[in-house]
Sequence to fold (522 residues):
Amino acid sequence: MFIELDGEGPRYAQLARGLKKAIQRGQLKAGSRLPATRTLAADLQLSRNTVLAAYETLCAERLALPMKGSGTYVAAEAPPAQLPPALPGFPAQTRYAARLRSLPRLVLPVGHRRTRYDLRYGDSLIHPLLAGAWRRAIARATAADHWPYPLVAGLPALRRGIADYLARRRGVVCHADDIVVVGGAQQAVSLLARILLDEGDPVAIEDPGYPLAVHAFLAHGAKLVPIPVDGDGLRVDELARHPIRAVYVTPSHQFPSGAVMSVERRRALLEHAQSQGCWVLEDDYDGEFRHDASSIPALRSLDETGRVVYIGTFSKALFPGLRLGYVVCPPALRGDLLLAKRCDDLACSVMEQATLAELMADGAFDRHLRRVTGELRRRRGALLEGLRRHCGEHLRWQDSRAGMHLVAWLDGWSPEAMQALVDLAQERDLGIHPIGPHYLAAPACSGLLLGYAGLSVKQLEVATRLLGACLAEVSRMQAAGSDALAAKREPPSLAVGAATQRHDPRRPTPLTRRAPSRRRAT
Fold:
C-alpha cells in the first residue's frame, strides 16, 4: 500500500497524516479495514510500534475504529473523498480530440426501456452447449505454454484455424501469415483508417450504414462520401462520381438494410477499385448466417489484384465480450498494420486467443454455428409468418437471406407518425426501432429494423400481433390528421425504477431463456 510520508516530525505522526490523506482522497474507503500493523510495518519498513501509534492517533481523531480481534477500520462517518476540481472549459488538446467530441450521436437502440417483446436488431444467440465447450477449451489452453508475450499478429494456432475456417466457409483462400488478429471489427476499421487515410481523404461508405464505422472514419479526419444502397447492395455506379481513397462495404449482409450484394456488383466494385487505385474494406458482417441454400462467396475470394482488405469478427458468432476479430491483409499493408497494432495495444489477450484456437480445432465452433443457424431460420420463419398474418396491410418487408434482422418499410409515413408508432409500441411493451437514424442523407421512406434473434418463436408471434395492432391504430390517427398524432407524441412515462439499458448491436442473447419479465435487469 502506498502511503506518503512527508518527512516532518516523528514517524508515527507522518504515517498518521499520510493515512488521513488517503482517507480524504478516497484511497481508503469508509468502513474498510486498515492493513494489519505487521503488514504495513513491513511494507513501509517501519517498526510495528510506529504503526500502532499512528493507528491510535487516527482513532483519537475518530477517523478510525479499533475492533477487538478483527483489526482497525476506517470510520463509517469518514469525510467524503476530496477530488481535484475539474478545470472549467478545458479545451481539446488536439484536432483528433476535437473530432472525437464532435462525433454524431450514436443511432444504436440505447437509452430506451427494455421491453418484454423487443424486436431490437443486433441481438444474437448463444447456444446452451457453447458454455461447456468454452470451459473445456479454456482448460486445454491453460495447460499449454501460452504465458510469454504474444506475437503482434496473433497466436499462430488461431491464425491457422481462421485461415482454415475462411477457406471452408467463406471461400477465402489465404495463409496464416496473411491474418492479423485484432480486438474486434471496430479496432480493425480504426487501425485501417489510420494507415490508409490522411485527414481530408475521401472514403465511400454505405448509406444507410453502420454508425460505428462512421465514427471510426470521422475520428481520423476522413471525408465521408455517402453511397446509396438498393436491393443488390452498394450502388457501385455511384462511385464513379467521386474520387475516393477507400470504400467500406458490408456485402454479405448489408447493415442495416440486409441486402446481399450481387456477384455482378461485387465484380463491378473490384473493377472500379483496380481502375481507380482505391482500397476496398470488406466487413463480412453476419456472413456466418445464411438462410438459403445458395452461398455467395466473400468479396475477398474474387479479388485478384490485392485491393480487398477482409475484416471478420467473432462477436456475432460467439459473444461480444470476446473482443477478437481478424484482418486478412494484402502484403502491401501488412507491415503498416502490424506497426499500428503494436502501437495501439501491443497484442490481443493470448489466453482468449488460445481458447478460441482450441474451440476451432476440435470442431466445437462449427457445431455451434450449425446449431445457431438452424434456430435462427426457425425464428426468422416465425417473424415472417407473423408479419404476413398481422401486418401485411401496413408493411412491406425485405426477406433477407442472411443475418439476424430484416427491414420493413412503411410507405407514406411521416416522421411524426413513426414517432407515434414507436411511443405506442413502447407503451404496450413492444420494442421497435426505426431505420431512419442510420442514414447520412434523408431517407426516401420510413422503415423499421426488426430483429428476431432475441425472441422465441412464441414471443415473435405475440410481438407481431402487437405490432399489427399498433400499426392499425397509428394509421387511423394519421388519417385523422396531425392533431391526433401530436397528441399521441407525448412521451410515455416510465414507472419508477424501470430498467434502462445501453445496447451494443453485436451483443448476443441466450438461445434458451427464462420466461420474460416485464422489467429486465440491466
Remarks:
- The chain has three domains: 11-74, 117-125+367-510, 129-364.
- The radius of gyration is 28 Å.
- Residues 491-522 have pLDDT under 50 and may be disordered.
- The CA atoms of residues 178 and 297 lie 19 Å apart.
